[in-house]
Amino acid sequence: MDPAPLPIAPDPFNARSRLSTPFGETVTFYRLEALQEQGIANLDTLPFTVRILLENALRHAGGEFVATGVVEALGK
Question: Which of 43, 52, 56, 64 minimizes the number of CB atoms within 10 Å of its CB?
Fold first, then answer.
C-alpha cells in the first residue's frame, strides 16, 4: 500500500524544487541556497546543526505552525 501523498505546503521563500530519480520517481526538496540568494542566510557561516533546523523550518514555513520570521531568524 502506497503512503498517502503529503499536502502541498506554502512556499513563501520559493525554495521548493523537484528532482527526478533514475527510478522514475519525483522527489520534492527545499533548497537552502534559495535563502542565500535572497540574502536571508549565509550558509557558509551557519553551523551544521542550525542548517538542519533551518531546512526543517523552511519546509513548514508559511503554514499553521512555522511563521516566516522563524526562517529569517534562523538564517541570521
Answer: 64
Contacts of 24 (CB under 8 A, 6+ apart): none
d(CA 27, CA 3): 14
Q: How many Å apart are CA 54 and CA 13, to the nearest integer?
A: 12
Cα separation, 2 vs 11, in Å, equals: 25
Q: Which amino acid is at 11?
A: D
- Verdict on whether the full-model pTM lies above 0.90: no
Question: Could you report the per-residue pLDDT of 18-48, keeping only the tens digit for each?
Answer: 999 999 999 999 999 999 999 999 999 999 9
